[in-house]
Design brief:
Mean pLDDT: 90
Order of helices and strands: HEHEHEHEEHEHEHEHEHEHHHH
Shape: globular
Oligomer: single chain
Helix content: 25-40%
Distance between the termini: 62 Å
Amino acid sequence: MLPALPHIGRRRALQASAAVLAVFGLLLWWLLPVREDSPGGRMRFSTGVQNGVYEKYGKLLRTAVAQDMPDVDVDLRNSQGSQQNIERVATGRADYTIAAADAVEKYRLDEAPGAQRLRGCARLYDDYVQLVVARSSGIDSVADLRGKRVAVGQDRSGVRLIADRVLDAAGLDPAADIEPVSAGIDTMPQLLERNKIDAFFWSGGLPTVSVGRLSERTGIRLIELGHLVDKLHKQGGASRYYRAATMPADAYPFAQQGSAVPTLAVANLLVTTDRADDDLTSGLTRAVIDSRDHIGDQVHAAQLVDLRTALFTDPLPLHDGARSYYRSVKP
């Protein structure tokens, strides 16, 4: 048998063992992820038309939320677009949505129900206004749409709002000078391809899959719109959110054939109300920023989501939960 350790030896051995355990515990604390309590509950998220960028973004964001906040059930709901999205959130029929800044401002200026409760979570990416015509058509400008059959988006879409303002800026009455067709991006390409319409307006991130696929099947062109920005700004109100932009030549290679296209752009916002839970809103905002690259692999416009600009949600004040998130990651 081993001789018994002297009393002082045993005490030192116990102290050394305790020190080793303490160091081991600190090492585990450092190496292993510490999971904060995740918010739970149900999140109603209003997206957009089928095959549109809002719908695709919403589906990818739901996946990101499931990984980051597994106790949150995200219920995605299709819509006609920005104007319906804002109405749903403001009136409590949805909790979160994506909407273009011009549609948000119009809802506020109209003093529509719940407008004062709207809050921003993040500035996401820009929508680019796209006026698409057949390559063989004689349409070279917005003014050439006079008397033509033009798909202008669904009634409560952001596309409809922009199309009406662009037509007005070009000197056309949207109700009398064209034959307006109510349609979304889920049907517009097929209508143009089948010669049921002469042109269609679309406002979405670049590239929009439906427009890209149409350009691969048939010859189309994109009409320049950038020169109308000054006339749009003179309209006042929500039109101040349009800015001149350029669609890069590689957005739709088959349609643009190596040429960039001057157009208009408007920012998209992640929107909620002051009723939304702070922790849930903070977690959703974090998921948007952290999943930028993953979502951007499939929705290329999402690659432009930037932490430095995301908190600028004009015309809406930041939600307190979103502000808390931005403060937590401030350098």
